[in-house]
Design brief:
The protein is an all-alpha fold. The chain is 75% helix and 2% strand. A two-stranded antiparallel sheet has the order 1-4. A two-stranded antiparallel ribbon has the order 2-3.
Amino acid sequence: MKNSGGGSIGIIGALVVIVLVFEFLTGGVLLKPNSFVSLIQQNAYVIILAIGMVMVIIATHIDLSVGAVVAFIGGVCAILMERQGVNWILAILISLVVGLIIGCWQGFWVAYVGIPGFITTLAGMLIFRGLATIIVGESVPITSQPFRAIARDYLPNIFGWWGEFDGLTIVVGIICIVAFAWSVLRKRQRAAKNGLEVGPMSGAIAKIVIATLLIGFVTYLLALSGNSTQGGIPIMLVILAVLVFAYNFILSKTVFGRHVYAVGGNRKAAVLSGINTKLVDFKLFVHMGFLSAIAAVCVLSRLSSATAQTGMEYEMDAIASCFIGGTAVTGGIGTIPGAVIGALVMGVINQGLSIMGVDSAVVKTIKGLVLLAAVAIDIMTKRKKA
């Protein structure tokens, strides 16, 4: 079972309102081109972790260790590059392998030993935070410029500048608009061909118009971003786009994805239907470990230094993003796009309050209230429907 379309529209509307409010409160700073790029770069880790967390929560588990895992893998990657002289690309590959091993370790205890995910990952949080402290010490600065470029640089300007705008960004924006319109119309045509009921054409057109406006505005901001030497589409945005597309496909179009929803919806029924629920649980934590490693590389590139304190409360941001994005507390319901939108809500709140100079303690309080309100609204809506 997945989120309803109405829930997605509701959270998108909430995101737009939050953006407009902070745009007003920050005096128009929030949606300046470089501020928008900064929003993407600084909150990429939330989106990456939320992609994995939403799958884990759908299957009725939780992962409290992702922040500590980010710190540990970031430390491993930094030590490989700076103290062992390992090439930055090889260091990244080794870091991804370490993430997969950690995922296998935690998946084994949850799936095959039967220790609840909450306890397993609580132990993991302590273990990997401790290991990060042991191996990193105070900090390990990163000197590799190509590695640091992952978080701060843009795609090459292959089409040149069109006035003040990056040509490549405009081309990609147009392709995205055309692709979205084509997918909406194709889906409608398929439904009609199979004898299914289709809504009025005006609804499809409205979807396309709204998407065109949103994509067009984002394209405008990105095309104006950067500096005198580079700008347009940040490398970090490309990484996020690939991960969101790939995992949305995995969760919505593959057998594994259907099994995740089946396990979360009714585990006993899933077992009776022949689904290997233990293998599903194991794979979920392997994916979470892999995504934690990617988040670790991105965070290390942005901060340019590994510390044992990196990743503090990252798990809370990821979990909150999932619930704000409509993932059910009881499991069985949730989507990757919903989690991404929830992560963007958290990111906009972080960025907006930061621009306003609000104290970090107040920021935490506001984020907590937003999470509480999101879950309360979800529960009350389900009660009314019932």
